[in-house]
Amino acid sequence: MIHNYSMVLVFFLFVASSHAIPPQQVNDICKQTKNPTFCASLLNSKTNADLADLTQYTIETALANVTNTINLINSLIAKSGNNGNLASHYKSCFGNFRKALEDVDFSMVLFEREDYQGVGAAMSRVETDADDCVSGKSPSDYNDPSLLPQYCAVVESVASITIILSKSLSS
Predict the structure, then answer these.
(1) For 57-87, what is each residue's pLDDT tens digit?
(2) Domains and CATH numbers, the chain
(3) CA atoms within 13 A of residue 139's CA, in its CB half-sphere
(4) Is the separation of the CB atoms in 88 and 95 below 8 Å?
(5) Residue 63 Cα to chain centre, angstroms
């Protein structure tokens, strides 16, 4: 009886791993990003995953990171006090990330519909919203000493990876 169970388990592990994307494909995907090391770390953290699994995983990761960024922005707005320029900047970022959250949510709906081009388009808007938050109207608008630029960079990176994955699924 135990022997049969072991055989079934081995069979399922074989089937699961046979659909996983090979390491070279992860490297090829990550070479297309601005931060290949971050990309490889993110994608390799999801074992035995195929392209669809990785795409869903990156959308979920984007959702978590956008939500964390919104929480940070709310905290920064509360702490900006009398600094009107900084408060205005953070409120603008809040608007950007509120739109980004809607786009991440919509990208999951599109993913479930297998509209992978739509996923790429929605995540492209997320990437733009994060970039607009960091750069403002012009790069000299402010020098933000908070963690917000790093949070935005992570959101941009995850969105970029999702865009590349969704293109791979579309082809």
Answers:
(1) 999 999 999 999 999 999 999 998 888 888 8
(2) 21-170 (1.20.140.40)
(3) 0
(4) no
(5) 7
